[in-house]
# Entry
Amino acid sequence: MKECVVWTVNIDRKKSRSEGRRIPRRFAVPNVRLSELAEACKELGIEYQVEEKKYPKCWWEQGGRVRIRTNGSKTKIMVEIARKIAEIREKKESKQIKEKKSRRN
# Structure
């Protein structure tokens, strides 16, 4: 197993490749938070460690990174994490919509 570092910037759709995005834009997710990154790793069963650090190229922005242990390709793992974050967001959004509908009735 090798250890990799995944920054929030690496999977952020709003960032360019030169700003730190490491996966294709079609797989990336906008405005990734460190808590979402950790939650996605947990749900995927990836061994991880959260670190609240600033990405050097954009040190003024909020963000962070997770250290993960994996056997596979770092790019494939980042795509999986981005998909899981999108899935988590969809679940939370649909839950909020249901709650609003139930309050109206």
Remarks:
- The mean pLDDT is 91.
